[in-house]
């Protein structure tokens, strides 16, 4: 006579990961790495998480809210990375290390990097949504060793960011592939010229 196995020995289905704002944002970052910025929607992310779109609204207010949160997380990642790679380095060595890490991040995480170009840094009434000076700290701390005052170092840090971002965007949009130029050498030369000019800005 066949008997049913005891209930205590039956396997119970694994529960889905409990969702909160952090897990949703983390999933969005991973989604961007795989599918890119334009593919990120509430419904697409819900499928990734094994749930339905409406359930995500318990954790984010809207797609824009999610995208702003993702953008802020990307900034935190980049700033933390720049602090790490510049630690123990000084002057041009630190600047070159930061620039190289920034460019590498953009190339390895194009979906995440797109958040910096697709989400505005101002709110609906044109108030900044970020602390620019806080974000520039890794650069201004390194640039400060050249004897520049705080404001001048901050301005120089913004210039460095603009140069790196502009170069990266030329690469990511395919411009650099259409010209006879070694992008690695060109990027290194650009950063070297920037660093060399800092001593003249006192």
UniProtKB/TrEMBL annotation:
InterPro entries found in the cross-reference section: Homeodomain-like_sf (IPR009057), HTH-type_TetR-like_transc_reg (IPR050109), HTH_TetR (IPR001647), MT1864/Rv1816-like_C (IPR025996), Tet_transcr_reg_TetR-rel_C_sf (IPR036271)
PANTHER family reported for this sequence: HTH-TYPE TRANSCRIPTIONAL REGULATOR RUTR, TRANSCRIPTIONAL REGULATORY PROTEIN
Protein's name according to its UniProt entry: TetR family transcriptional regulator
Transmembrane regions listed in the UniProt entry: none
Domain HTH tetR-type: 18-78
DNA-binding region(s) in UniProt: 41-60
Gene3D superfamilies: Homeodomain-like (1.10.10.60), Tetracycline Repressor, domain 2 (1.10.357.10)
Protein's organism: Mycobacteroides immunogenum
Keywords: DNA-binding, Transcription, Transcription regulation
GO function term, MF aspect, one: transcription cis-regulatory region binding
């Amino acid at each position: 006579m066949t008997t049913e196995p005891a209930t205590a020995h039956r396997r119970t289905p694994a529960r889905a990961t409990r969702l909160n704002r952090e897990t949703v944002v983390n999933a969005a970052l991973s989604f961007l790495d795989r599918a890119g910025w334009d593919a990120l929607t509430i419904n697409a992310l819900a499928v990734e998480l094994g749930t339905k779109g409406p359930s995500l609204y318990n954790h984010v207010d809207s797609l824009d809210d999610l995208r702003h949160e993702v953008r802020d997380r990307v900034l935190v990642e980049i700033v933390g990375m720049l602090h790490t790679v510049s630690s123990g380095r000084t002057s041009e060595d630190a600047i070159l290390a930061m620039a190289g890490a920034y460019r590498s991040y953009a190339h390895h995480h194009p979906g995440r990097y797109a958040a910096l170009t697709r989400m505005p840094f101002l709110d609906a009434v044109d108030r900044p949504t970020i602390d620019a000076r806080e974000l520039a700290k890794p650069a201004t701390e390194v640039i400060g060793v050249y004897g520049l005052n705080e404001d001048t170092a901050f301005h120089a840090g913004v210039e460095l960011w603009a140069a790196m971002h502009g170069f990266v965007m030329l690469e990511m949009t395919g411009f650099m592939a259409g010209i006879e130029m070694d992008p690695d050498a060109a990027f290194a030369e650009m950063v070297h010229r920037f660093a060399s000019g800092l001593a003249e800005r006192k």
